[in-house]
Amino acid sequence: MSSNLEKTLSLHFREFTPVLACSDISKYVSIDLSIHSSFIDSIDVSDPLKMDLFINNFLLKNSSKVAYGGYLEKRNLYDRSDYFNTDGKRNIHLGIDLWSPSSTDVITPLDGKIHSFANKINFGDYGPTIILEHNLDDITFYTLYGHLSVRSLLDLEIGKHVDKGDVIAQLGTHVENGSYAPHLHFQIIENISSFHGDYPGVCDEKNRDFYKNNCPDPNLILCLE
Q: Which residue ranges form the domains of the chain, and what is each CATH number?
């Protein structure tokens, strides 16, 4: 059964601004990085430079500018970092990744305010991260933007209003974004609890249902499918 948040977002479908500077949806291509992917075993996912090369070649092959996907994917990408294996094996992805070059502008899809921000410097973590708070039809929820550039956090203020279409950040390089090929981790969060500048973006199998309910499909905002 759909939650009130999912129903509300569905009612406003197609009203949201794309979260990356590329607004031409025809230039977006889906990519499967799950353990079931036909090519995942041929990629050295532990090396961000090799991963970046693979993504760039994938985009060229598909005449695209942004590769996207990953909601509820089970991935081996996180095996490289102990950060994801401290309490069970966390390998189920809770957001959608949008793979695009570093310095690409990140745009807020609807009005909101800055809830919190942080630089999560653990190996394989988000790196610079911004969380926005939104209220739509009297329903409060949050959107998370991870793997940003360090300079994206400069001059931010908690509570500052942001308008739909505002540039709020840029994508970071692998040196600053948690050691990944450049991309945006975009996630919807219904109840953020006491988290600030952070929220789990990957979960283990036993907690999948909880996080699926609290973090609905980002395509409700991205409108890519």
A: 4-222 (2.70.70.10)
